[in-house]
Structure formats: C-alpha cells, structure tokens
Write a structure and sequence with these properties.
The structure holds three protein chains of three kinds. Chain B has four helices and nine strands. Chain B is α/β, with parallel strands linked by helices. By secondary structure, chain C is an alpha+beta fold. Chain C has a domain of 82 residues. The chains are: A alpha+beta, B alpha/beta, C alpha+beta. Chains A and C meet through helix 1, helix 3, strand 13, helix 11 and helix 13 of A and helix 2 of C.
C-alpha cells in the first residue's frame, strides 16, 4: 500500500496545525459557527445529535494493521470504545470532543492517516473495489489511480468550494463492487484498443433526493490523461453547477439538465486546452505508484490439499463461513476473506476497539498486514492462505465476527440514522437489527439479498440501490418507512421503486418479511436470487403481498 | 521513503505558517495605486492600501480616474470608452461568462472577481481561466466574502489583491497569522516552484 | 423544527467544546439533564430562552440552540419529537454497541461539564473543573 514520503508527511502535519489554529480561533470567538463550519467539515468534523463526529479517511478502503491499531487506540482514549465503518469505506467516531480533535489528527498523522476532505463541498474520499489487488477478475489494481486522484484532489485551490460534495469511485472489473455508477465520477479501468490501460469515464451518478445513474462521458480515456480530464470535469462543474438549491447542486443535476452530450462537449473543449499541460501523467510516475501496490510475497508453493474435513462440532459452521465469506483469489492457494460486521441483531458496521485490535492482529499475521473496508460496511482480509482459514475463522468467532452472512439478507447496510445523525428523520439501526433477527434463521435459504436502509433522503445508507431499500421519513412527527424494491448498485445498476404506502417501525419489519416470503413462494428455484426473481415477476406480486387486505 | 515505525516524520517546526499571502509571489508587477494605509481595504503584498479604484453604479457618470465597471456596462458602453485614458477595471459576478470578453481583456488594468458568499467558489475557476486560458496579466482582485482561510487558495489560482472587510481576517493578515499548508499536491497558476520528487505534480509554497 | 413557537418548551443546544447535549437551566447555566432545564410556558418566556441562547451562542459556549417542545408527565419532562427524545436519552441502541464505554469511564480524560469557566481548548487538554450537578 502507499507509504508517505517526507512531502506527504509534512503535508498532513501542516494541515493539522492549520486546523488546530482554526479550532482555537473558533473557541476564542474569532470565527463564528457559520465561518467555522465549512472549515471543520473539510477536516471531517460534523456536529451530530449528541456530540461531534469525526470521519477519518480510509483511502480506497485500505488499512495496515498499524493503522487499525491506531484507530482502536483513538476509540479507547478519545472516544467511547468503538467506531463505525461507513458506506464510503471511511471510519467514524461518534463522541470526539472538538478540543481533542487536533490531537486525534496528530495521532492519525503518526500512522499516515488524516480526515482531510471527508466532508464539505469538495472532492471526498476516493473509493475503490474492496477486492482490488486480490481478485482474479480485475484488469489491474485500480488503487494506484485512486491514490493519484487522492493526491491531486487534496486541498486543490480551485475545487475546495464546489457547489456540493463530489465523490469518485474506481473499479477495474466487469463486476462493480464499488457502486461506481452511483458516483459523481465513476472510473472503470480497462485495456484500450492500443493495449494500454485507460478508463471508461462515467459522470453524474448519485443518490439522495434525485437519484440518478451515471452516464458514460468518455469510453476510452488513456491513463496519462486521467488528471487533465478530471480537472476539466471539475472546472465545468465548479462553474456551472447550481448553487441556488442544495438539493439540485450535484453534477448529476447538471448532466440531467444539459444532457450528457452537452456536458461532454464542454469538458472536451476545456480538456483539449489543458491536455498536454502540467497534469499529464508521466508513465513512469504511474508505474512508480503501482509499485506501492505490488502483490505481496505470496507463498508460491502448490496449495495444500483442500481444507481438511471438519473435526470440531462447529465444522459445518466453518464450511458455511468459507462458502459464504470467502472469494476466489487470483493467487492459487489463497482466498479473500470477508469479515462480516453484521452479527445477527447487531449494529451494522460497528466494531469495538478490542475487535479492531484483533482484526489488526489477523491482518498482520494472515493477510500480509492489510485489511480493507467495504462500502457495505464490512471488512476484508484480502490475502489469506487457504490453510489459515480455519485459524482465522476461530479468531473471528472469539470476537463475535464470524457470521457467515456476506451478501445475505442479514448483511444489512444501514446509515447511523436518527440515533446519531442530525439530518435524519427516522432511526435505521433498530430496523436493521429487527430485520436481521426476524430473518436470520432463513438467511441461507433466502440467499443473496441486499437490504439497505437510510434514515433520510440523503441516502447515506444507499437505499436506492438495495434489492430491498428502506427510507426513513417523518410522518406527523413519528418515524415512518418507505419500502423500495429492485435496486442494484452493481454493474446492473438500477434504482429501487417505491412499493406503495409506507409503514411504521413494526410494519416495515413485517413488510420486509412478507416480500421475502413472497419471493420464496414464487422463485423459480433456490438458484434464482431475489433480484432476478423481481426482474422476472415485476412488482405486482410483491405489492399484493404487502397491501392486499 | 517509507516511514520507520514509530518515528515522527520530519516536519519543519511549524505550527503555523507565518508567511503572508502575496509575499514573494508577485508575478505581475504593476503601478501600485494608493499608499499603504492601516485602514485601507485592499490587501496587496504585505499591507493594506487605500483603494484607488471607484465602483460607480451602472447609471452613474464615470469620473476621470480608475473605475471598475460591471460586465453589462462594459458591453453597453464599450465603443464610447475607446478613448478613455484613466485605467479601466471590470467586475465579474459568479455565473457571468468571460469567454465573450476575451478580445477585450487587454483593456483592463484590473479585473475584480466577486465571492458573494464564501461558499461560492466559482471565481476560483474564473481566475484560473483568466490567467491560464486568456493570459490576463493585469491585477486580479478578490472582492466580497474574502476570509482568512480562502486567501491562500485565492493566491494560488492567481489573485493579486484582496478587498477585505472581515475584521478578524484583516487582523490575521496584518499580524501574519494566516495558517496555510505550504506544500501543494497540484500545480496551479501562482508562481510555485516544483517540489521534491515529482516536479510535474508537486509544488512548494516556499 | 416546529414552524410555530412551541407552547411548552426547553432550550437545548450542543456545548461548543465537546458537542454534548445541554439544556438551559433557570439560573442561566447549561446543564446535561433535561430535568434541570428551564421550562418556558408563555411566549415571553420562550423569547427569553431564545435570547439567552443567542447570547450564549455568540459567546461561543454552545452551538445551534433551539427550542424543543416538551410535554410533562409524572413530574418528568418528555420531549415531543422522536429527535429530541433521542437527544435526551442518547442513541437508542447503545446497549448493543460493541465495546461501548459510557462517558466518564472512557480512557484518560475526564469530561468537563461546566462551560462557563474559561477554558483552554487549544489542544492541551481540558482543565477539569467543578462538574455541574446533572
């Protein structure tokens, strides 16, 4: 993974010093809250219902064990013993004191981490496929490009006061594991006709009040043109994005209003002007950054025989876990392990300091010191030898994180919701907990089913692209929930459709169960997952299950 | 160079960068109208100055001294101003195009770009286009909501002068207390020497 | 937020230096417990609360003060909206949070409750001062 050099290290230290100064000026009153708010947001500091929240950047979801241990330490010393992994591969602490945050940032800088631009109307954390560098189905590791974009976008003088937030995701496979088409810019790394590497560039995706799927703006951008092209897109957006209405300010609105051809033409014109300028990527530089992401020193010896037959009483549980939570690795003898942060009835995406430390140990010992954060609020050990799977499973069981439910109905994505967030209309976590408890016994039978829950229209829970999505609203002062069906954040990106009238907090759990039961009744067989059945059947049978008297 | 475990990375012993924006980076030397004046509104270099420029309303008679016009007025009175001796300035509001003025830019000794609210960052791009695309070499002035934390960005995209009314920002400028990150990950318009190992990309503010 | 001034309300805000939810009490101090909050029962009292909130916000003690409508039952103040109930009681799911350590037991630093004492928040650590009786 990328390692800071002196420039990178000095950069984050200066940034911390600058924020320390800004905090002091806020406390002294030199800055009022209106003036301070955009500054603190650009350092990842929100004000939530009960306390501040600090959102720490995990660039393209990649962490070392040392970094994970530091996060555990911060949870212990400065917060209340836990953290929350988010749908943008970041980590949130829910109780930091403003007065402590400069110290927290200095501690993060000790391990090459920061909270720069994790909020505010600027370019946010660049996310990537959480199986990058390990999966067989990628063209190349997308993360070097994510790192290049991260640097270019850090404290960019021209793009620090955009109309709205700006999110970029990078993938390198036909399987979109990063919801690329739901980003302001999505980049799909591929081989171009000449044989070199380049990108299909998508623009104008996003969720929220006006969910839209990104449109292809350019199909064949050579890698050397990555930054100049992005700069052109950002410049057009900065100049022409709406600023009169925060719900109409993302680039998706501009693309929708002008049409992709018109936007592409403006971008092309500007890009051609700057294409050969200072931001043209030297090939040697791309290759140099790639060396930071070179594959680890895999054990090249032929893999041992297939994992031995279970000898302990939980052998079946281990088998289920291997079947469900491991993914094929490009290197023979290895597997990609998903650590589900969705224990049955638990809080999606949360981990205690002790769990973080234990996972850091596992990463160090069994995964070449690397762990990933997924946008579905789980963790990944990317490079685990098959022969070590049993030990990893045992260790995860000891910390309560061995649920074999990756991608199952209990692997629910939920935003913090009204339990934490000042923007929320309704709680999302308890809904996730109850759905999980209600359906856990049948989760294997149900198969792949992604439920995503947002506590408000800002859609941080990605409810628009859940196979089943739930949106919390406020109705006559009470929490109320809308149900959406048929969304997908993968390469078959689609926005869920509202099923009909909403439900109360009890009703929504029943509603999800009814939808699931109807699916089980009508599916062609256990091999037809929910999304396929929904596509085949349409929403009529599900609406009937929900609303028929 | 990879960092060693546990070693605090090198940093200059800087808690706050005390460099004043504009200092040492004045690539566009010009006549400096107005005397240094502690209460003057215009920050240039390392001091506040009186404002030598007037900004008459669109219908007002133009005095025979430096004036800043709106784009609408310029377009309306362009030909009539051909023989004018006193310097001309132009103020562009966010959302106003500048490409259609490309041929005229040489007429202006000063262009003011407005930041009606500090969150409205359109003028950052307009400034860059004026410098990089149109080659404007006159004074580029930031007006409106000009605050401490935006000034380093403004300088980097090509502004020379700043009309500052916000009290704490004025004090911070005078006392040299604008905290800035002096290492830059991306090239921009202001004269920044390449830094370190990636001259194509990284810049130093030093 | 209510579109009209609530009939029976308390003033709530977040403390600037640590973000903790506080309520304005009758003696002008900000307290962590709603039970000690000053209750406004007339438009004049409501306005008085709001003005004090605005003053303390301008004095950088608290951020985002606002009126929260409350009901009274069994001698206790119950906020009307779910949102305020959650603010008063804390996240509803804390019992299920892995590793949760309540305030005051966390790590090294004691929490400071009394915002009126001048306080160096420049990162050198809070000076523990007298804890406001909740």
């Amino acid at each position: 993974m990328y390692r800071y050099d002196e420039f990178d290290a000095t950069f984050v230290r200066q940034r911390v010093a600058q924020f320390r100064d800004q905090v002091a000026r806020r406390v002294s009153g030199e800055l009022n809250e209106d003036e301070f708010k955009p500054l603190r947001l650009r350092n990842g500091v929100y004000l939530q219902l009960h306390a501040y929240m600090l959102r720490i950047a995990v660039p393209y979801g990649t962490l070392s064990s040392r970094q994970m241990r530091k996060l555990a330490h911060i949870a212990r010393v400065y917060d209340r013993g836990y953290g929350h992994f988010t749908t943008r591969q970041n980590l949130q602490f829910n109780w930091p004191r403003l007065s402590d945050i400069p110290d927290i940032l200095d501690e993060l800088a000790d391990v090459e981490m920061h909270a720069i631009q994790t909020s505010g109307n600027c370019i946010r954390n660049v996310t990537a496929d959480h199986f990058a560098g390990a999966t067989a189905d990628e063209v190349a590791d997308p993360r070097p490009y994510a790192e290049i974009i991260r640097q270019w976008s850090s404290l960019h003088p021209e793009f620090s006061f955009l109309p709205r937030k700006f999110k970029v995701a990078v993938i390198a496979s036909e399987h979109d594991r990063a919801a690329m088409k739901l980003h302001d810019i999505g980049l799909h790394l591929k081989r171009l006709d000449g044989g070199g590497l380049g990108f299909a560039v998508w623009v104008g995706g996003g969720m929220g009040r006006t969910p839209l799927i990104a449109k292809l703006i350019r199909d064949d951008l050579p890698e050397e043109d990555l930054l100049t092209y992005l700069e052109a897109i950002l410049r057009i957006y900065n100049l022409h994005g709406r600023r009169d209405n925060i719900y109409k300010a993302r680039i998706k609105i501009l693309v929708d209003a002008l049409g992709i051809e018109a936007v592409a033409a403006q971008v092309e014109e500007e890009w051609l002007r700057i294409r050969d300028g200072a931001l043209k990527l030297p090939e040697a530089e791309i290759r140099r950054i790639e060396t930071y992401f070179a594959p680890p020193a895999f054990d090249e010896r032929p893999p041992k025989a297939a994992v031995r037959a279970p000898v302990s009483h939980d052998g079946r549980a281990f088998d289920r876990w291997v079947a469900r939570n491991t993914h094929a690795h490009k290197q023979p003898g290895y597997a990609i392990v998903t650590i589900s942060l969705k224990p049955i009835g638990g809080i999606p995406g949360d981990a205690s300091a002790e769990q973080m430390d234990a996972i850091a140990d596992l990463a160090e010992r069994y995964s070449f010191d690397e762990v990933r954060v997924t946008h579905e609020q789980n963790l990944v050990l990317p490079h685990v030898r098959l022969g070590d799977l049993r030990e990893v499973y045992r260790a995860l069981k000891a910390i309560g994180l061995a649920e074999a439910n990756a991608g199952l109905v209990t692997d629910i994505i939920a935003c913090p919701g009204l339990d934490y967030c000042a923007l929320a209309n309704a709680r999302s976590i308890p809904i996730a907990q109850r759905i999980s408890e209600r359906l856990a016994a049948r989760q294997d039978q149900i198969g792949d089913l992604k439920i995503k829950i947002s506590g408000c229209i800002n859609a941080c829970g990605h409810h628009h692209v859940g196979h089943i999505g739930i949106l919390g609203v406020e109705k006559r002062g009470e929490e109320h929930y809308q149900l959406l069906l048929g969304g997908s954040g993968a390469e078959d990106a689609a926005l869920g459709a509202i099923s009909g009238p909403g439900f109360g907090p009890d009703g929504i759990v029943d509603a999800v169960e009814k939808v699931v039961e109807r699916y089980l009744e009508l599916r062609a067989g256990p091999d037809e997952p929910f999304l396929a059945a929904y596509a085949r059947l349409g929403d009529a049978p599900f609406k009937e299950a929900l609303y028929a008297a | 160079m990879p960092l060693d475990e546990g070693v605090r990375p090198l940093a200059p012993s800087l808690s706050v960068d005390l460099r004043r924006p504009g200092e040492g980076s004045d690539p566009f030397p010009q006549q400096a109208p107005g005397e240094p004046e502690p209460d003057g509104p215009i920050w240039r270099g390392s001091a506040f100055h009186t404002d030598a420029w007037a900004r008459p309303a669109d219908g007002e008679l133009l005095p025979d001294s430096p004036v800043i016009l709106s784009k609408a007025r310029w377009l309306a009175e362009r030909d009539g101003l051909a023989g004018r001796n006193a310097p001309l300035g132009l103020q562009i509001e966010p959302g106003e195009a500048i490409d259609d003025l490309a041929a005229d830019l040489g007429r202006f000794a000063l262009i003011a770009l407005s930041f009606p609210k500090f969150a409205d960052g359109r003028a950052f791009s307009t400034a860059r286009l004026l410098r990089d695309k149109h080659g404007f070499t006159g004074e580029l002035r930031a007006v409106g909501a000009v605050l401490s934390d935006q000034i380093p960005y403004m300088r980097r995209v090509g502004f020379d002068t700043y009309a500052v009314t916000h009290g704490p920002t004025r004090r911070a400028l005078v006392e040299g207390r604008i905290a800035e990150v002096t290492l830059h990950y991306q090239p921009s318009t202001a004269d920044e020497p390449p830094a370190g190992t990636r001259p194509w990309h990284r810049r130093s503010g030093e | 937020m209510s579109k009209r001034a609530p009939d029976v309300a308390v003033l709530t805000a977040n403390r600037l230096h640590d973000g903790i939810v506080v309520f304005l009490s009758a003696n002008g101090r900000w307290v962590e417990s709603i039970e000690a909050a000053a209750v406004a029962r007339s438009p004049d009292e409501v306005r008085c609360l709001e003005e004090q909130g605005a003053r303390d916000s301008a004095a950088n003690l608290v951020v985002e003060p606002y009126l929260a409508e409350v009901g009274e039952a069994g001698g206790r103040l119950i906020p009307r909206r779910t949102r305020e109930r959650v603010r008063v009681e804390g996240p509803s799911i804390l019992d299920d949070v892995p590793g949760y350590v309540p305030a005051g037991e966390a790590g090294v630093r004691p929490l400071v409750s009394n915002v009126r004492v001048p306080h160096n928040a420049g990162g050198e650590g809070s000076d523990p001062v007298s804890v406001e009786a909740a």
